[in-house]
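STRUCTURE:
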């Protein structure tokens, strides 16, 4: 096939400035864009030719090559067999020149609301919706990881038509609502005139076609609501508010499109004993005056078995003991367990207890030290360990 002169394709002279080349391309690309000329093969050819010409003339080095050697100088352009998508050039152009003389705005109005938005594939448009589910979990469940069965209603592929939306043997026809374009134009009156907006056609869901004889089970959508039990495997150590997606477990796609996802949001129930900070756990351990003075061993029940806590003799109230690796695990990370010791001061004393404490209070070893500083540092380091 003889190749047409690139300057002729763009309708510019051989000494056109880069600016003139760009403008010419822009004008023609809009005119012959496939979105505006659906099913028009001639327009599509012109669009490809225009894009190809601009790919060469729009770049100074390639243009110089072309001027000297013709099509041979630029590898014969992009003929059949070379991987060349005119849309790539077009997109690239739109990207590079956005903000340049209202280029993108112009495109939006021509192409119908959003340049990229219009480029969504059929599969994307048919994709099923994501479903969201809040999943309350106890700290025990989080500590071990858990498998949960949940019941939910979701759109599944219609068993009767297999998702096509058509009665067996039925066919699809052009949508009469939008005349096959898949979109509806809406004219809005504004102060300075009118604005034309487009939105996907409701009748055909932006497809441009509808099934002639819809499946009686699903009404042509290719899917139906069903209550299902879904098994969720939650790994250990998930955080409150964390979201996990189960791919493909959302709504089935329309007319055979890909399914959406099921998005699970973790809601951690508060625990009666432990508080959580990342993977670390914190628990308060009240001990008596004598235990604090003499030291003790305490068997503490944790989320994963029990652990022996060694409280050293002479421990002060508020001291934090750290048990490494006894917190929550996530993957191969493990947090620590912090035991905050609180010396419990007795409040109701019998006569005998009072007498003994008074006696103890006279001994020099039980006298409290003088007031002093040092609290701020202590609080600052509380969680640093
Ligand atoms: Zn059906
Ligand atoms: Zn339609």
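SEQUENCE:
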């Amino acid at each position: 096939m003889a190749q047409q002169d690139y300057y002729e394709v763009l309708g510019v002279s051989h000494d056109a400035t880069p600016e003139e080349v760009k403008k010419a391309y822009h004008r023609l690309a809009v005119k012959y864009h496939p979105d505006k000329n659906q099913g028009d093969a001639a327009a599509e050819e012109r669009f490809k030719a225009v894009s190809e010409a601009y790919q060469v003339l729009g770049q100074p080095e390639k243009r110089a090559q072309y001027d000297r050697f013709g099509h041979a100088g630029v590898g014969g352009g992009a003929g059949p067999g070379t991987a060349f998508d005119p849309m790539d050039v077009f997109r690239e152009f739109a990207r590079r020149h956005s903000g340049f003389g209202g280029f993108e705005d112009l495109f939006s109005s021509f192409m119908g609301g959003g340049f990229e938005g219009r480029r969504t594939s059929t599969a994307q448009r048919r994709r099923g919706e994501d479903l969201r589910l809040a999943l309350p979990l106890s700290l025990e469940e989080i500590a071990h990881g858990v498998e949960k069965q949940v019941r939910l209603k979701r759109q599944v592929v219609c068993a009767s038509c297999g998702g096509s939306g058509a009665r067996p043997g039925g066919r699809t026809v052009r949508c009469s609502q939008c005349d096959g374009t898949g979109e509806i134009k809406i004219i809005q009156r504004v102060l300075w005139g009118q604005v034309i907006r487009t939105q996907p056609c409701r009748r055909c869901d932006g497809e441009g076609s509808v099934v002639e004889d819809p499946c009686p089970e699903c009404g042509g959508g290719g899917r139906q609501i069903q209550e299902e039990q879904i098994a969720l495997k939650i790994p250990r150590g998930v955080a409150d508010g964390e979201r996990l997606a189960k791919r493909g477990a959302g709504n089935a796609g329309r007319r055979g499109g890909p399914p959406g996802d099921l998005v699970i949001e973790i809601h951690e129930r508060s625990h009666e004993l432990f508080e959580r900070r990342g993977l670390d756990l914190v628990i308060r351990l009240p001990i008596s005056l004598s235990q604090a003075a003499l030291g003790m061993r305490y068997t503490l029940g944790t989320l994963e078995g029990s652990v022996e806590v060694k409280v050293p003799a002479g421990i002060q109230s508020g001291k934090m003991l750290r048990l490494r690796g006894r917190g929550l695990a996530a993957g191969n990370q493990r947090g620590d367990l912090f035991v905050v010791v609180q010396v419990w001061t007795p409040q109701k004393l019998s006569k005998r207890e009072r007498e003994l404490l008074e006696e103890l209070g006279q001994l020099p070893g039980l006298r409290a030290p003088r007031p002093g500083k040092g609290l701020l540092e202590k609080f600052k380091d509380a969680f640093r360990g």
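REMARK: The first helix runs from residue 6 to 10.
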